Amino acid sequence: MWCLLQLPVGAKYHAGKFEKNAFLELSEGRESLDRWLSNQKIHVETLANTAQVRSMDWAKTEPYLKAEILRFSDLYAIAIGKPDGWRNVIGASLQM
Fold it and tell me: What's the number of domains the chain is made of?
């Protein structure tokens, strides 16, 4: 069975226009995500260089990280860990 599809003369123009718009939205979304990730990286580096976190003393680190979770609404959780596998997570109920 054959099917013949007839497109209006301007259909190719509109399809190209929609394709360009979709590409532009995708590009803008990627740039937005890249900026957000860059900001998160800076934030984590800043936290990692504070005296509380550098001490790796959980009694000192936990209250500080809890306050950071409350201060930044786009943070879901903050975790710290050591090479031997020790870790603690603040802000999320993750199963590790």
Answer: 1
